[in-house]
Amino acid sequence: MHRRLIAPGALAAASLMLAVPASAASFSPGAPGIGDPYYPDYGNGGYDVSHYDLRLKYQPSTDELEGTATLLARTTQDLSRFDLDFLLDVSEVRVNGTKASFTTSGEHELEITPKSPLAKGTAITVVVRYSGVPSSKQAYGFTSWHRTPDGGVGANEPEAAWWWFPSNDHPLDKATYDVSVLVPDGSQAISNGTLQSTSSRLGWTRWNWRSDKPQATYLATLAVGRFDLTTGTTDGGIPVVNAYSKDLGANYGAARASVERTGEIADWLSSYFGPYPFDALGGYVPNTNTGYALETQTRPFYSPRQFANGSNTSVVVHELAHQWYGDLVSVSGWKDIWINEGFARYAQWLWSEHEDEGTARELADYVYASHPADDAFWTVRPGDPGPENQFDIAVYDRGALAIQALRNEIGDEAFFAVLKGWPQRHAYGNASVADFQKYAEEVSGQPLAALFDTWLFQPSKPGAPAARGASIAGAAATAIQPKSWTKIAATNDVHTD
Q1: Which H or E run includes 129?
Q2: Per DSSP, what are the bridge partners of residue 231?
Q3: DSSP string, 353-369
Q4: What is the side-by-side order of every strand in the sheet holding 109-113?
Q5: Model's pTM, two decimal places?
Q6: Residue spans of beta strands (DSSP E) within 40-118
Q7: SS3 label, residue 316
Q8: What is the C-alpha R_g of the chain?
């Protein structure tokens, strides 16, 4: 993944503000960032989006995308101007039906000035008409749009929306989505949620998708190509749509053998995390050359490389676990990434137990014993790893080790109550690591500050007394590799190019 910290642009000088008439002085530009210290320019201030309606046309042969995005939002301050995060070429912007002026700034800011200032609490409709070639655009030296032989895919973390729709691009601003995509007959357009309808006319087919539960912008996805689609229903009654590129080659069988178990795995995860929180399910495997997978809401993205060594249900477990830990409950800030990745990794450990390929405790013992005290692995703090280490392997493995330490500390009854209750406590919202600690203390009735500090925040290996206190075996003899380890390790690049 690609990371760069950019300081937000400065606001107008106070001397200029003095020249503004008193009647307009309360109106000010929305901030060009939502306030995340890891990514200061991501997201925007001054408004909150409730719904995105995206009406798109895409030509796979040329990677040309045309779109009209309609955003329903409400202002959160007296607003003279506001930003959207976007990279493609804009031809027109309207705010509440009236043309607005616009310009671009920074790496990915679309600055919009409505004809009249907007008072705090105003419901607004923003329409953006645009076009461009997504694969030709970069920000901070990278792209999140993946060109494929038969089309393109928008999928990445923590940013992917800029390449195909304008947005308030931060998990704090979730919204519902309607995504309607016109593609040439013979191609399919895959997105999140439920396929509402398809219709064909004059050589083009329109695919209409709906996500009616709050969804973070980085979890929205679009894939256009030639896919084989399968449909089904889980035991719990959730409709499943999976899609596989027709040119996956030797990886096709393993990909399908893995992703077709999505319904089964989601039902199994429900026993730990509570009822599946959305009304659609599935996965898709486009013919990309990326190495990672991503928990795009209701329909995870998988790279063909995930199945290069055969079927891999462990990666499916990981991405489906995110539907609760990451999608249903999203991070308050990107420093809280442990809540996403630690628990998705721990779900793989639980799957290992389910498959009789090594218990979670054996896997925890193995992780602890496999990394000597001077290993850089221990310098990464999963509870606040920094943007440069946001997807470091320690966030996954040390993060899951911390969860096992918590389980051992509070006992299985309280632990599994936490595991299931947490997604319900913050359903469709956002939460932090501090929120999780507070909730675990509430459920268990135990003070946990020292345990969280030791296993999540200290840049060093927890010593033998701490390990013994959390029932983590530390002897070299415990470094016996569980049978599931190879499959789990095969998913270590789920967020790495």
Answers
A1: strand 123-132
A2: 241
A3: HHTTS--HHHHHHHHHH
A4: 28-29, 79-85, 109-113, 101-105
A5: 0.93
A6: 47-59, 64-75, 79-85, 89-95, 98-99, 101-105, 109-113
A7: helix
A8: 23
What kind and span of H or E run contains 257?
A: helix 252-259
**Measured distance CA(494)–CA(480) in Å, rounded:** 24
The answer to the question of residue 270 being in a domain is no
Q: What is the 3-state secondary structure (H, E, C) of 132-160?
A: ECHHHCCECCECCEEEECCEEEECCCCCC
Quick count: other Cβ atoms within 10 Å of Cβ 410?
20
Return d(Cα 292, Cα 275) in angstroms, integer: 27
Instruction: Return the bridge partners of 329, or none.
Output: 325, 429
Q: Find where tokens 């191609």 sit.
A: 187
**Domain encompassing residue 429:** 331-490
How far apart, in whole angstroms, are the C-alpha atoms of residue 177 and residue 210? 6
Q: What digits encode the pLDDT tens for the residues 87-120?
A: 999 999 999 999 999 999 999 999 999 999 999 9
Residue 63: other Cβ atoms inside 10 A: 18
- DSSP 8-state code for residue 167: B
Strand blocks (E) in 185-221 = 188-190, 194-201, 204-215
Neighbouring-strand partners of residue 89: 131
Cβ atoms of 47 and 83 closer than 8 Å: no
- The model's pLDDT over 400-443, given as tens digits with 9 standing for 90+, comes to 999 999 999 999 999 999 999 999 999 999 999 999 999 999 99
Q: For 16, list phi and psi in degrees, rounded to 5.
A: -70, -35
- Interior/surface letters 332-358, b for 16+ CB within 10 angstroms, e for the rest: bbbbbbbbbbbbbbbbbbbbbbeeebb
* CA 326 – CA 338 distance, rounded (Å): 10
Enclosing H/E stretch for 29: strand 28-29
- In the three-class reduction of DSSP (H, G, I as helix; E, B as strand; rest coil), residue 71 is classed as strand
Q: What φ, ψ does residue 106 adopt, rounded to 5°?
A: 60, -155
Q: Which of 338, 297, 354, 491 is nearest to 422 (CA)?
A: 338
Count of structural domains within the chain: 1
Is residue 335 in some structural domain? yes
Amino acid at 39: Y
Which two structure tokens, joined as six digits, stand for 382?
């999963």
With cut-offs at 50, 70 and 90, classify the pLDDT of residue 486: confident
35 phi/psi in degrees, rounded to 5: 115, 15
Strand order from edge to edge, sheet including 239-245 = 227-233, 239-245, 281-285
**203 touches 237 (CB < 8 A):** no
pLDDT digits (tens, 9 = 90+) for 67-78: 999 999 999 999
Is residue 17 a part of any domain in this protein? no
Instruction: Give the whole-angstrom CA distance, residue 323 versus residue 303.
Output: 18
Evaluate whether 139 touches 107 at the Cβ level (below 8 Å): yes
461 in a structural domain = yes
CATH code of the domain in which 384 resides: 1.10.390.10
